[in-house]
Structure formats: structure tokens, C-alpha cells
Amino acid sequence: MEEVQGDALPSDEWKAALERVVSCVVVLKVTQTRPFDTESAGSSYATGFVVDKKRGLILTNRHVVTPGPIVADAIFLNREELPVRPVYRDPVHDFGFLRFDPTKLQFMSVGEIPLAPEAAAVGLDIRVVGNDSGEKVSILAGVLARLDRDAPVYGRKGYNDFNTFYLQAASGTKGGSSGSPVVDVRGRAVGLNAGGKNKAQSAYYLPLDRVVRVLHILQEANPTHESWVAPSIPRGDLLTTFLFKGFDDVRRLGLRQETEAAVRSAAARSHGSAPGLLPTGMLVVDSIVPKSAAASRLEVGDVLVRLNGSIVTHFLQIEDCFDESVDKSVELTLDRGGKEVDVSIEVTDLHAVSPSSLLEVCGGSVHALSYQAARNSSSPLGQVFVAEAGYMLGRALVPKHAIITQLAGKATPDLQSFASVLRTLPHGARAPLEYFVFSDRHRPKNTLLYVDRQWYGTPVFWTRDDAQGVWHPTTEYPPGAPPTPEALTPALPPPPADVTTDNGAAAAAAAADGGGGAAADGGAAGGALAAAAAEGRRASGRHRPAAAAAAAAAAAGAAAAAGAAAAAGTAAVAPADAAAAEGRQAGGELPAAGDADHQDAMDCHLRSCLVLADVEVPLVCLVDGVHGRSFAGSGVVLYHGESVGIVLLDRNTVIVGPCDISISFCSHPAEVAARVRFLHPLHNFALVSYDPRELPPDARAAVRAAPLCTEPLRRGESVILAGLTSCLRLMQRRSIITNASSAISIPPTDVPRFRAIHEEVLKLDQDFGTSFSGILCDDKGRVRALWGSYAEQEEKVEREWCAGLPAAIIAPWLLQLIALGSSTQQRTLCVRTLDAELEPLLLSKAAQHGLPQEWVTTLSQLDPERRQVLRVKSTVAQSHAAKVLSSGDMLLAIDGRPVTCFADVEALMSPSPSGTSTADGSNSAAAAAAPGGTAAAGGSGAAAGGGGEDAAGGVGAGQAGGERASKRRKAGAAGAGGEAGAGAEATEAPPQSPPPSEATGRKRRGGAPTADAPTPAPAAAAAATAPVVAHPQAELPVAAANSGGDGGGGGDSGGGGGGASIRELSLTVFHSGAVQHASLTTGSEDGVGTRRVVHWCGAQLQLPHRSVRDQGFLPDGCSVYISRWHHGSPSHRYGLYADAQMPDRVGAITSYRLNAHEIFTSAQFMSVVKMLYEKAVKAHAEDPAITPPELAAILEARRLPPKWTTLARFPHLPGHVLGLYAVHFITEVNGQATPDLDAFLAVVRPLKDGDFVRVKMLQMETWQPKVITLKMDLKYWPTWELALDEETCSWKRVLISEPLM
Q1: H helix or E strand, kind and range, residue 368
Q2: Could you say which of 43, 63, 741, 1129 is catalytic?
Q3: Contact between 638 and 646 (Cβ < 8 Å)
Q4: Which distant-in-sequence residues (6+ apart) come within 8 Å of 706 by Cβ?
Q5: Would you call 94 a catalytic residue per the annotation?
Q6: Tens of pLDDT along 173-210?
Q7: For 754, how many CA atoms within 13 A lie in the half-sphere containing its CB?
Q8: Would you say residue 931 has pLDDT above 80?
Q9: Which entry of 94, 323, 624, 889 is annotated as an active-site residue?
Q10: What global pTM score does this model have?
Q11: Is there a catalytic annotation at residue 314?
Q12: How many beta carbons lie within 10 A of that of residue 944, not counting itself?
């Protein structure tokens, strides 16, 4: 005995009694593995005590045992732990029994506490022996004050006891004491602790009269602990709730005087011993379950006088009668408003109306409406009740605790009918569903159910087995039902007819040829794009010449591919489709801006290409730190062929690869499913594909691809901002570019997730708000930029804003994706990366850091607009850049070419497309199309025709308008093996001085002193990084090290095959006060993100994604990353926590809701949480271990951003329930290293159900190791994985460990 609280000092008699009692009390660690009835999945501590040591029976509360599937352990006084299984839970009253195997208890002998309900009496000294939140034994002293207290009410939607009295005392029980024995000085249990009220220091105990009856039945049916059988325990009820009211109350209800006199003269009955007790009141009908046998015979307010001819004034009397009369009729005499009424009602079997099975549907739980829920909501029993919506029902916006009435046009009055209809629907089907919620039951809601079999597999039907204390799963439900039809959603289409192998090759050849073939094959399309390319080269000097040159080259390459596509009937990156929209002129363009028909034509054009995307992320696929489950945003169709369509979206809409995407078209009321095809790991855009063959013919004809224009936008230029509302209404306005090169800097989030870096975006003077995404187009209807949504955290609060991403960054990847249609093996793209995050630093600040003045002057002259240098902010962990670069290094040049902005770096990282190029490495078509016959002199520079300001190229620039030429040196000016510095018909260029670093003679870090490396062919596209196709079998390393790098891009073609994904760069950096040279091998990132997810013990495991490695440090062997855990799993139970707990749904544009409260800001959230918390504490403080409904809503934090659940200001809330733990890595399992997922699976695959596992982890923030142990649970939480199928771009679910049936 470790703690005694109370005024009375323990006597010797009490000490002896407590010595016996304490050894019989156990701590219960209970985990509900699935949501069921009024209980959610979760883990908690409680108390129980042994009442039969021979059979191993433990008595505790019903709300501890719960009616659903649980896994539980009992921890005895000596800290010995044994598994326990439920054998009984009462349908109404708050008690249940668990069973353990007494032969397995090895190190102590346990006693038992006798039950003595008759010993309860007012004034009796008692002790409550229980566990204090699972930490130690607590003994609380008290005195019984009442034997007829009303049953406590825990909430309107949760479990409540009724039709019984409770005992009351001032003992002030604490959290975790549910199920504690209330003992007298003789060590007998006189009550069962159930709840309490902290402010009043009151505790409520369940009388043990009905408990003793059930215990005797269990003991008679099972003489020993072996071969346990589940006996039939009769429990009857009229499905009616009675309340005890004093004579003063019932007299006002019309009770006749003679009836009152007769009742007062009858013998009274009470819990415990109360000699000479006289009746003080009567039982009154309080509520009746609709459509029950009593509903047509009883009325609310009826006063019960006699039952089967005997006067009744106590709940024990009616329970004795009902339990003995199951499925039989009983005679009731009622007083109804002063009139005596006799009725006969059949007694209902409570076990028959208490569900013992559930249908698990995509992470949700559906079962028949229970007596508890029907009583709370005043609804008929047996309806299809949603205990937890899960993914599929949640996607249809069906809330928790809803009733489903119809599916696919068929009535679903019960669970079997619902399962029968659901089984006939294949994966990908869309079926209408009707439901209602209890708060608005007279207005049914209609929605659309998207049937899913991909993420969760076939629905599982679970049935409770009280003999074994477990639930058994099966997928064959209803019995004898036909098999589920094949999926409707087709696999990724084969090479499309409109982009055949020959056309694909032609597109690649045209891109390499710079667009010459486009004019021949595409006719006017090629000419239009050639003009666009020329316009791109005439960009104003206010933009970086390197970016303008790259954009021009990209436009020329785009023209080539678009010309090839135009030959097949569809334009990809071109304003070349003459029939793209109704109202266009014969030349394929919209009417001039001043024409009267221009606005109508523009509206029609925008409607033909704009779409609205709804993105849903399944709960089992919350990878890469995704901060929500539901997103929406506007997109634009960039390619629309016979069998493939491609849509452009931002990455705040499509955040991760494993998701479900629905595309709704503005041009026609049609919706189609889409797949993720490309997620840029650094930039805020994604490309998804759909199958146009799934659209109706009218929709296919109405949808058109929007042309892309890669010409840079200038400050002050007018554009049209267009997008769609949630109702598919077109919104557009004319805006002015206020900043054409605004460098974004999004800070890392608490839970690492995607964030855009190395972007210079467009800013407008006016837009449609911070969450309205869309496109920026010109008066010709050409897409100039994606107006994308960005997300960031400010002091743990989510904030959204929008900015424009230039089309030049997107165009090369679109062309590469279109080219994949001609390949039967290469389906995804790989992205070359620098593996370092850069940030701009003003040259004035850089000079104060010691940057030599000659470099300050050179960079300032190269870029008079920005006057900045790029500084290393961080490097990717385990990358080559982490070995070569340090935080604070200033990047001055790449391959001998000075850089001042992100476009310079990314253009110089990109190799020339395969095919012909000029001697200086520039694109021949771009050179030919340059105005005035000019060509870039050296590298990828572009001539500035007619510009008033300096237009420096990637390496060199032509002189225009008498303006000062750039100071970049020519390509090949230094280093053996360099190419000639002049292109075809190069204009006169002034001699250039080498950069100041040429004469420094610094050593490479990690290498010997070296001269400048030979200059490789420069970039010809304004891609963020080089588009490279990844072979489906190729392993994508976390940090690539290319020992055989081409160094100059000879075989590392931007349009090339699957082998080339990395290359070597020669960097000039300012490090430690000196200009140095370094050789850096680029990294490689998968263009679809995480492609493999393993689920083990309820934890979601993956490889560390880019944002995790962006943190800058990752120890060796840390490649098994925990991205999420699930409630009710071993991971939850034993503390294998991941990053912050994710919400169920997050709307990208709308507000959030918590318990019907609209939430727009974190301040509002905290206000609502505080209000709910105070309400929960005030009204339901009887037992903090069992979460009241209001508090449960807070802990679940449904539909909320993840960090809004950080309730640090409420110290009483258990932090582990909220998942407030930083990210973790698993490094060892049972002493064996797990450096990757394959090694991890090899270690855990042989483990069996019930095995204990020792897991060593590292916490990301502190990198401190810790070790936890957990127990395998393969019945409820088998091991399985989701993997991306390269050929079909769809996800496959693979079961690794077979579940125990």
C-alpha cells in the first residue's frame, strides 16, 4: 500500500484489509483497435480487481472493456504483466469482466476480493484502491453518503449508464481509477468505482447486485479457467429509460392520492442494507426508443405503479423481472395523468440489439445502431451507423455518427443490405449515397461515394467471439454474396495513338533541332512558336539575360515538340491549335484586345482549358509530412489527346504522390479521375494525367489544351488572372505585374514537408485573395505563368498566399512527360538537383563578409537589377554537396560562368538537349531565330534585340543599342579542350576579362590544385533542373555520387534515357575568406516523390523524403522514417510516435470546423478548445481517464491543421494522445540494424503475433537515441505495404504478413 488519502488514520484492521486488497488490484492497459459504437480507437489506463483467482476473472467498468475489439494487459502488483481478454460487458450497466490465465502468473500468488453488495450502507467507511493514471496504487478514503444517486451522465453522444441507482461518497477519485474496488474494513467490495466530479470531490460507484448475478453465471458455466465458454446471460429491457422521481414530482404528473397511499404502504427495496426504509418516490418513463415494442404502448411521463401485479419503486425490481422474462410479455400498470392504464409489452433481449459485429470500410467503421446510440439519439435500432467515417465515407463528407439510408439507389435499412450493395460496386465506381445526421434527421443529405479498393483493400467484416475474447475478420460478407466486380478505373493507357513512337521520336528530334521541324510539321504552329521564341529573346534587360536566353531556348524546344504533336492533331506547348476555342480567328489567335468579341472569345477559351482539382490523401498515405487530407485548387489543361490528357496544378493542391485526384472541367459538366505523373521536388508545380476516353464525347470535344508561352513577363506588363471557384465559376481580372523576380523564402516547418525553393515568382497588384489559384495569361490566351498557392507556417500557424511561377520552368517537363507516351518502359521523370539550398545576399552585405571587391564589381555589372550573390543556406544530408559546401559559402560561378540568380544556376546545371547545337553550345534554332541574325557569343547567352538595357546571356551576350556588354567570359575561354567561343554569324562582342577567381590558384576542397575544367555545353532550357527519364528498375539513391560523371553533359541529355541522372559541376565559391574551386556531383530526386510505404504495428514507415534530408543532418543507417501512427495500434499503445498527428480533412480554401464551431484562425481554434475543455472539466470530471465527448473532439482535432492541435497551454491534456512528438527514425529492431526498408522487413517478417520487439529510435530534433518495446499484433495490425507500380502509375497494396483469422 503506497498512498492513503483522507482524514481518517488507518487502523490495524484497515491495514490488514488493505494488505489483502492491494495485491488483488491490477492496472489495466487497454487499447481499442477499431472505433465501435460510442467509443473511438485509442489507448488508456484503468483499474480492475480479481474476483475469481481460480478462473482468472477481473472485474472492471464497461467503458474500460468497451463493446468493441480491444487488446488489453493486466499489470499486477509485482509489475508482472499478463494479457487479458474480455468475456462479458453489460449492455447497459457500467461493468464488465476480463479473463487472464492464472497459470501464467509466475512470481506472485494473487488473491480475490469478495463481492458484498448487501454491505453498502449510508455512513459506511470505505477505501477506493486504484491506479493513479497508470503510475502507482492510490488509496482514497471516504464515507458512503447516498445509495440512490441518479446514474451519472457523461455526455449526449457517448456511453451512459441508466435504469439504476448509484452509490455516492466524497472520495475524489482520480484519472485511471475507473474499475477500482470500493472496499469496507473487512476487505469486501461494496461498489465499483465508475466516475466522479473533481470540483465537488464526489465519486460515483456502481452497486454490485447485478454484477454478482453475472459472476455466478460465468462461474457455473466454467468450472475451471480451461476451455472457456461464453454462457447465455439473460438481459432484458423494454428499451425504455425510467427515472426515479420523488412523490412531490409524480404528484404534479397527476398521480392519484389512493395510488400514492398504496405505494407508500408497500415495502421498499434498496441497494445494500437499509432496514425500515419507506418508499420516497416512483419510477417515471423518461424516454422510449422509437419503433420498439414499448413505443406504441408507453408514453413519456407515465408513472410505473405495478409490474406483473407487484408494486415497484426501485430499479432492482424491474431488472429482476425483465431479466427473467426475455422474449416474454410483462404486465404493467401505469398512472397516466391521473388515469390507470394496463399494458402488456414483450421484453427485448438486450444482447440481440447490442451489435457484436462491424464492417471496416477504408479505415472507417460501420455497424448496426446500438441501444446506447439509439437511446441517445432517439432513433430506431439496427440502422447503418457510422462509428468512424474513415477515408471513403469521409471523402464523401459523411460525418461520424451518421446514419446511411441509401446506397446506389437501394435502401440500406441494416448492415447486411448495405454490405450487399457495396460489394457489387467495383473500384472506381461512383454511387449516390443518402444519409442523415441526428441533429438534422428530417433533412437527408445526398452525396457521391467514390468506391475505393486500392488503398485499403476489400472491406473486412469483424465478428466478436466472447468465448475467445477476440474478433474474427472475413472478407466474405454477406455470406454467399457474389465476388466484387473488376475495377472500373483502367490502368495507365498504353502509348497513345496521338503520340505514337514515330511522333515521339520526331518530337525529340525536333526539340534537339531547335524547332526547325516544327515549322515544317506544324505549319502555322511552328511559325507561331518561332515568333514566341523570338519574343522571348527580346526580353527586357530588367530580367536576367540568362533566364531570357534559357526561356527562348525552351520556347524553341517547345515549338519542336508542339509541332510534332500538332502533326498528330494536338498541341502541347504552343498556341497552335486553330480550333482551340470557339471565337478564335482563322490564324489561330483570339481577336485583338480592342475587339468587341475579345472578351467573349477569352471567356470561351479559358473555360475550355481550366479545371478544378479535388485531391484526397488516404489516411494510410499521409507521407512526406503532408499537412492535410483534403485539398482543392484550379488547374489548366496543357495537353489533351485521344488517350492522355495532362493538367498543371500547384503543389499546395497536389502535395504527395499517393492520393486520389478528381478533375472537374469548366467547359463541360464532367469529372474524371487523374494520376500524379510528376511532382517537382523543388518548384511549386505538379503534372497529373487523365484518360480522355473516360469523358463523354461532348466533353472530349469541349476540352482544349491551353498554349504555353515561355516568354518572360516584365514588370508593369498586363496579364489576365483566371481561375475557378469551388462552384466551377470562371473568375478573371486584369492585373499588373509589380515584381517579376521576387525571390521566395519559405522557412522549414516543424514537421518537414515540401516547400518551394530557388524560385523567383511573379507578384500582382491585385488578385482574388490568398487562396485563389489559377493561371496568368496574355491577351492571346497563352499561359504565361501558373498562379499557384503556397503554404507556410508562421509561429505554428498555417498561412497561404499565391504567386506566379513562370511557364518557362514548366514547359521542359511537360514536353518530357508527353514524350514518355512513346515509351513502354519509362513512365516517370528524374530531377537533377544541386542538393544545396541557396539564398540571395545583397552584394553590399557580401562585401562586409569579405567577398573580394573584384567579384562584387563583376557580379554587380552582370546583374544591375538584383546586385546580389547566392549564399549557401543549407545542404541536403548525406549528399555530395554536404561534403563540398558549407553554410555561408557564396556561390560565384559554375563551370567557370558567374551566377547571380537561381535561373543562372539551374540553367547551367542543365545539359544541352541531344542533337545538333552550335559551336558555342547554344541551340541552333534559337540562334537562327535571333532578330537581326544575331547569335549568342559563347555559352547559352542570348542576344538582346532592341532592348534598352543590358541583356547578359548564360555565358556571354551580344551588344545591343550601344549599351554596355556583360562581363561574363566566353565559353571555352579557359581550359584545354574548350570549344570555340563564337556561334554562327556571331555579332561583335568586346573582349572579356576572366573572372577574378581564375588567377587565384586556390585548391579544390577535397582535391589537388587544378585549373578551370573544360567548359561543358551550356543549358538550352529554362528548367529548374535537367529533365531526365528514370528507368523503372533504376534505384534512386538518397545521395547520388557519380564517379563516372560526364562533366560536360555529353551523355547526360535533358531528353535522354533512363541512365543519366547526375553530373559533375565545377564550382567557384567564396569560403572561409578565400575564393576556392570545388568539384560537386549533383544529386537526383524522384519525380513522383515517395513511392513505397510500409505499415508495421500501426506505424507508417518510409524512406526519408527530401524535406527531411533538407534539415542538413542524417546519421548513417537512418533510412526508416516514421511519418505517422494510427490510434489503437501497438505504435500508439507503446509510444512509437511519429511527427505531429495529422487531421482527417483540411480544406484548401474553406474554413475548418470543430464541434460545429467555424474555425478560421488558430486564435479561434484555441478559443473554442478552451471553451470545450472547460465545459468538459465542469460537466464530466467524474473520470478523466475515460475521455468525455467534448474532450474527445479536442483530442481528435478533426478537420484542423496539424499544429493547431498543440495545446501546450492546457497541461492536463495527455500530450501523447495528440501525437506531439517530433519525427523519429528506426535504427535497430531486436538488436539488428535496419538501414533501409528492405532490411527492416527482413528483420520483422519472421516475428509472430504476441512477440515482444525491442526498437531503437532516433529523434530528429535532438538525435538522442531511445529504446522502446512493443508487442506484435498481427490480428488487428498486420504488416503490409503500398508501392507505386511504374508501368501503370498506380499504387498496389501488398500484404506481407497474413492476418490471424
Answers
A1: strand 364-368
A2: 63
A3: yes
A4: 580, 605, 609, 636, 637, 638, 775, 777, 781, 782, 783
A5: yes
A6: 655 688 999 999 999 999 999 887 665 567 889 999 99
A7: 28
A8: no
A9: 94
A10: 0.78
A11: no
A12: 31
